[in-house]
Amino acid sequence: NAGVTQTPKFRVLKTGQSMTLLCAQDMNHEYMYWYRQDPGMGLRLIHYSVGEGTTAKGEVPDGYNVSRLKKQNFLLGLESAAPSQTSVYFCASSYGQADTQYFGPGTRLTVL
Amino acid sequence: KNEVEQSPQNLTAQEGEFITINCSYSVGISALHWLQQHPGGGIVSLFMLSSGKKKHGRLIATINIQEKHSSLHITASHPRDSAVYICAALGGNQFYFGTGTSLTVIP
Hints:
Helix content of chain A is about 0%, strand content about 50%.
C-alpha cells in the first residue's frame, strides 16, 4: 500500500495563477482532509470530506476549493493564488472521524 | 486564544531521560490525537485516545477528560525521538491543533 500520496511535492506560483493539489489514498478511507501548516502556527483545517461526493469547510477555507469525485482522491484547488497562501499543505485520511489519521508527505507551495 | 495549548514549546533532554509533554484544551472533545512530525516534515500518528491510557513501546499517552488535559510520556529517550510532537483535539466536526513541542534529545 502506498498510503497517502500528494502531488506535486513542491510548486512555485505567481500571484493570480491557479493550481490543483492532488491527494490520493489507497486505504478505502471515508474521511479525507486538507491542512495547511505555517511557521509558529499549528496545522489548520482547510476543507474536509466525509465520503465520495461530499465536502465541508474547515477553519480556513477562503481562497480554496475542493472536490471528491472519487473516494480515493481529494483535490485542493487555488483559483487565484495569493502570497498569503504560501505554506506547506498536508493531506490526511482516516476511516472514521475519531480514527487515526494518516498523513501525506506534504506539498510546499510558494506564491510570489 | 488557542483551543489547544501545549507545553513546553521547546524541550532539550539527555539520552535516557524520561520526557513529558503536556496538552490542555478548552473545547469539549470526543478524542485526542498525538502526532509526531519528523525533522524532514513527515507527520505520523502516535495515538488516538478518548479515555485512560495507551502505550506503544516507549511511548505512553494519557488523557483526563474532566481536567481537559493529556500527556505524552517518552521513557528512556533516544536521539531518534527528536521531533515536533503535536496534539490535536477532536471537537465537533474538526480537529483543533496545538502548535507543537519541539523535542531535542542529545546523545
